[in-house]
Amino acid sequence: MVFDILCNFDFFLRIQSELALISGEQELSLAIDNMRELGFGAMVVTMGGEGVLVVDATSEIQIPALDVKVVYTTAAGDA
After folding, report:
1. What's the rounded Cα separation, in Å, for the pair 58 and 72?
2. 33-44 pLDDT per residue, tens
3. Which of 14, 12, 76, 11 is CA-nearest to residue 47?
4. pTM as predicted
């Protein structure tokens, strides 16, 4: 049922650990393959200090994280 709902979204954004839980695969490439097989097209996987992985039905682009000076991290991911 969850996948029936999620597959209706045009865009899927998750952190890497959540993608592993949803897809049932710990390895990122297998998790992405599973999600594609389920009908997910556009996905963005956030990977902390490694940046993000932007995925569509046929390609993947990794965008590295910016090197910034961390000042205060409380609520940093809440926006």
Report:
1. 38
2. 988 888 888 999
3. 14
4. 0.77
